[in-house]
Design goal:
Elements: H1 6-13, H2 20-53, E1 58-62, E2 67-72, E3 75-81, E4 103-111, E5 119-122, H3 127-135, E6 145-147, E7 166-167, H4 170-179, E8 185-189
Helix pairs in contact: 2-4
Length: 190
């Protein structure tokens, strides 16, 4: 007994002069090309945008406007919407208060293998903020980052909320990731 596959049975059932297999192959080729083009756009959009905007010298987060801007010589070069903690108004005071800190910091460490799509650590808390929290018997918190989405399919959207970090779309995270050097100042305004 010979093993006959389903494809062989189907091919035997289709007349030899039929255009059906050619149409199927063309459709498959077109769909494959569309998928490859979309994948290339998805992967390259952020780095290409970062290359086009060039070097930046400051990151500005405006909590009330829910925006993150990349600046060069005081001019906004790129801007995107952000997600903040559940209680964004006011200065972060303690671990778990769901607030995003305010003030001037630096971007000090990047993590390509973050639980979210990439992350860059903000140098919060400052020594003064840590001392003030300790004087009140509190932990000032930490681990405040700019980060992308947890799920890859949300590359154009941002999370509704974070736990105090600055959440952006994966596309925007690619732009920030490729445009910002470690040590770049970040200002977080109320």
């Amino acid at each position: 007994m010979t093993d006959i596959t389903a494809a062989e049975i189907w091919l035997e059932a289709v007349p030899r002069n039929s255009a059906r297999p050619r149409r199927f192959h063309r459709l498959f080729a077109v769909l494959t090309m569309v998928a490859l083009v979309l994948a290339a756009i998805f992967v390259l959009a952020g780095p290409v945008t970062a290359f086009a905007i060039g070097p930046i010298d400051k990151v500005l987060v405006d909590k009330s406007a829910r925006s993150l801007s990349l600046l060069r010589d005081g001019e906004v070069i790129f801007s995107t919407a952000v997600s903040l903690g559940k209680k964004p108004a006011g200065q972060k005071r303690a671990e778990g208060d769901q607030r995003t800190p305010e003030g001037k910091y630096r971007l000090i460490w990047s993590n390509p293998d973050s639980t979210h799509y990439r992350s860059i650590l903000v140098s919060y808390p400052s020594k003064k903020q840590a001392a003030a929290a300790a004087a009140n018997g509190q932990d000032p918190g930490g681990g405040i980052m700019i980060h992308g989405q947890r799920q890859w399919w949300r590359f154009l959207t941002r999370s509704a909320l974070t736990d105090g970090c600055i959440g952006v779309s994966n596309y925007a995270m690619d732009v920030v990731w490729n445009a910002v050097e470690l040590g770049t100042p970040i200002e977080i305004r109320p």
